[in-house]
Amino acid sequence: MIAATVPQPPTQLVMPQTAELVFTIGGAVPLVILLAIALRHLRAGKPLLLACMVGGLAASLFEPFVDVLGMVYLTENNAIHTFTLLGRTMPLFVPVIYPWYIGGFAYLTCQALTKGITRKNLMLLFGAFVLTNFALEAPGLLTDVYTYYGKQPLNPWGHPMWWGCENAFTAIAGGTAVYGLTRLFPRGGVAYLGVIPLLFVSEGISNAGTGWPMYATLNDNKGWGYTYAAAFITISLVLYCVWLIGTMAERIAPPVASGQPAVMARTSRDATVLV
């Protein structure tokens, strides 16, 4: 019954090996660069970036879950395999890309919140993450390295727009959680190991919390009217969450003047904030 009503992935696809290799190498370039920076930070006694990258790698374990629920199929036949969950075998590019996209962008978000960022600029940062996601996925989609299936709304060229918003928000949500941890443990050290499970959990919460309208309508095989309405709700939830984070950032940690060091101060409510 399920197989008859729920759209099934195109498992007959065969991985184009040259395209997969190019896509994987392309995803590995920012990984190598960011890893070099992270190791340099680590030698200087700053482990946060490396912890974020490891957390991003851990978050890749959620990829099979969102693939099944959000109807993405990463071509398996003749692919370079890594791990299998929910009957989906992940190609190598999954654990290659997650550390720098989720981990690296979470780190950038945390740094922006630490230094102080306006709501408008956080929205612009989110937009930059969305555009990066579209640019990242385009080569893989155009060469059948993977594909979206089912009644995907807002899908002008093979990459549903709601997915780009969803992926970018996972980095914003993870970075906000990391920022909270750094506020609790400003001296860092061993406490920053907590970033790893925090990013793992943030990946799951952000996807489930905002993506559920799409997951429900796609997997109930609803008509286009339902999936378009669900896409509007999902994108609205994402934008609201980013807006809310930006609003809190403005009120709790106003932007620091250029060249002025960040110091700990007391607000009128006796809450310790970074200013």
Describe the protein in words.
Helices cover 64% and strands 8% of the residues. It is mainly alpha-helical and 275 residues long. It has one domain. The N and C termini lie far apart (58 Å).
How would the blueprint of this fold be written?
Blueprint: H1 2-5, H2 17-43, H3 48-59, H4 63-70, E1 72-74, E2 81-85, E3 88-91, H5 93-115, H6 119-142, E4 146-148, H7 161-184, H8 195-219, H9 224-252, E5 264-266, E6 272-274
Antiparallel strand pairs: 1-4, 2-3, 5-6
Helix pairs in contact: 2-3, 2-5, 3-5, 3-8, 5-6, 5-7, 6-7, 6-9, 7-8, 7-9, 8-9
Question: Top keywords for this entry?
Answer:
two-stranded antiparallel ribbon; mainly alpha; 6 strands; globular; 275 residues; 64% helix
